[in-house]
């Protein structure tokens, strides 16, 4: 990842920056990137796990994370002004409430996905078993 | 290596990356690596309302393993060259 050719993707410019990390289980972690490697394994400091439901969100402080690269979907550099504007449009709820709302949303999603795969299977389409594990 | 080289010719162009979770991100291709990880600048998510977490993000790094499609402007792709390179690669592989 870190060759010194121009145009090569590298995470070196993301180090010591505040990042949003989206994981394959759909979790959103916001923290300061301290380290990475060729597998996109990451070390995130002062991490906060943020859950979004509708126009609200909730946060849980998590501390330091070492994330295995295979679970990473996307790293986004948090832009301070855009973040302030985004937060302004949402309301923050206590963690328990957000967790409850999120759980309900996920249950509905799971039911619709189940119904969809049943319909597809009836019509002869195969449903990819591997991708069932990814919820992002 | 072929597609790595191909994407390197598209650095600086506007592309739309569609991930396996249906998230579509339009942005300027900054860089690509051997794993086809992609860095985009000035990103704009296609269905913004559905993905509120992306509102605070201007640049991002997308892991190659989660990409489904990369949409490109047709005028920047030399299909003849690409076909040629693919043929050479296939022959080299044999």
From TrEMBL, chain A:
Instruction: Name any Gene Ontology BP term.
Output: RNA splicing
Q: Which SMART domains match?
A: Sm
**Which GO molecular function, any one, fits this protein according to its record?**
mRNA binding
Q: Which organism is it from?
A: Spizellomyces punctatus (strain DAOM BR117)
> Which cell locations does it reside in?
Cytoplasm; Cytoplasm, P-body
Lineage, broadest ranks: Eukaryota, Fungi, Fungi incertae sedis, Chytridiomycota, Chytridiomycota incertae sedis
Q: Which family does it belong to?
A: Belongs to the snRNP Sm proteins family.
Q: Know the name of this protein?
A: U6 snRNA-associated Sm-like protein LSm1
Signal peptide limits: none
Q: Does the keyword RNA-binding apply?
A: yes
- Domain named Sm: which ranges? 6-81
What does the record note on quaternary structure? Interacts with SLBP; interaction with SLBP occurs when histone mRNA is being rapidly degraded during the S phase. LSm subunits form a heteromer with a donut shape.
- The UniProt annotation puts the region (Disordered) at 109-136
Annotated Basic and acidic residues bias = 109-121
> GO terms for CC?
Lsm1-7-Pat1 complex; nucleus; P-body; ribonucleoprotein complex
Automatic annotation (TrEMBL), chain B:
* Record PROSITE patterns: SM
Record GO biological process: deadenylation-dependent decapping of nuclear-transcribed mRNA; mRNA splicing, via spliceosome; rRNA processing; tRNA processing
State the coiled-coil residue ranges.
Answer: none
Which Gene Ontology CC terms are recorded?
A: catalytic step 2 spliceosome; Lsm1-7-Pat1 complex; nucleolus; P-body; precatalytic spliceosome; sno(s)RNA-containing ribonucleoprotein complex; U4/U6 x U5 tri-snRNP complex; U5 snRNP
Domain Sm span(s) in chain numbering: 2-76
The molecular function terms of the Gene Ontology recorded here are: poly(U) RNA binding; U2 snRNA binding
- Give the subcellular location: Nucleus
Matching InterPro entries: LSM_dom_sf, Sm, Sm_dom_euk/arc, U6_snRNA_Lsm2
Q: Extract the Pfam families matched here.
A: LSM
Q: Which UniProt keywords apply?
A: mRNA processing, mRNA splicing, Nucleus, Ribonucleoprotein, RNA-binding, Spliceosome
Q: Indicate where this protein is primarily found.
A: nucleus
This molecule's function is given as: Component of LSm protein complexes, which are involved in RNA processing and may function in a chaperone-like manner.
Q: Which family does it belong to?
A: Belongs to the snRNP Sm proteins family.
Under which name does UniProt file this protein?
Answer: LSM complex subunit LSm2
Organism (species): Spizellomyces punctatus (strain DAOM BR117)
């Amino acid at each position: 990842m870190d060759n010194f050719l121009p145009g090569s993707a590298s995470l070196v410019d993301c180090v010591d920056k505040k990042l949003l990390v989206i994981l394959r289980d759909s979790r959103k972690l916001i923290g300061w990137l301290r380290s990475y490697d060729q597998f996109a394994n990451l070390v995130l400091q002062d991490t906060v796990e943020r859950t979004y439901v509708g126009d609200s969100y909730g946060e849980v402080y998590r501390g330091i994370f070492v994330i295995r690269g295979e679970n990473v979907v996307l790293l986004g550099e948090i832009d301070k002004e855009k973040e302030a504007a985004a937060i302004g449009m949402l309301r923050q709820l206590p963690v328990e409430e957000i967790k409850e709302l999120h759980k309900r949303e996920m249950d509905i999603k799971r039911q619709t996905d189940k119904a969809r795969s049943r319909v597809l299977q009836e019509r002869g389409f195969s449903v990819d078993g591997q991708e069932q594990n990814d919820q992002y | 290596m072929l597609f790595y080289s191909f994407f390197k010719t598209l650095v600086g162009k506007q592309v739309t990356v569609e991930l396996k979770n249906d998230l579509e991100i339009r942005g300027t291709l900054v860089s690509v690596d051997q794993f086809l990880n992609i860095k985009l600048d000035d990103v704009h998510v296609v269905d913004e309302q559905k993905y509120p977490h992306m509102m605070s993000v201007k640049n991002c790094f997308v892991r190659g393993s989660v990409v489904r499609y990369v949409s490109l402007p047709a005028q920047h792709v030399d299909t003849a060259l690409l076909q040629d390179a693919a043929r050479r690669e296939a022959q080299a592989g044999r």
